[in-house]
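Minutes, project check-in
Item: structure for the 193-residue chain
Input as provided by the requester:
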Amino acid sequence: MRGDSCEDTGSAMSLEVHRFLSRLNTPLYAIIDTARDRRTFSVLDELDSPYEILYPQRLAFDMDGRGPHLIWMPAVSPSLEQLIKAGWGNSWGIYFASPSDFATVRRHLRMLLFVKLYDGRQGLFRFYDPRVLRDYLPTCNEKELDQFFGPVTTIYLESENDRELLCLSVEKSTDKGEEPYPGRLLRYRLNLF
């Protein structure tokens, strides 16, 4: 009986996430990490939305296609509901809004994949993991936030307890006649249950 209750709660939460995201006016994207869970490949195969791996071709080949995949998510598509239902609470990835086209968004996100480590070596930055992003963004200064968000207006991800939708954006200047300045991180939580 307890399993049914947990499944019902998960279904109710994913339904609320879908309701919220499907009402957005700005185009929606998702990044899903296929290295996180084998089930992600079958979910990607069933989607009717275009997607591409973010890794450069050589790394994608070396990783056997596992890694972060950028997906364009039309609000009226069943793909959004499928993805949320299968992955919510499993740290499969993040959702975000951007008025930019797929190629522009992909180009920007690929610039975020690699970081220089303290010893000078290059490492992969798993910003598309909600557990990483929740901890990373609050540590950023205004310039870093501006660079990270780029064409992205808002990021949507599961909270620490999966019972909230965490919405992250950057506050920009709104005074007319002023140059826009890098903003501060805004965080909103939407209770799902």
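Outcome recorded: The chain has seven helices and nine strands.
No further action items on this chain.
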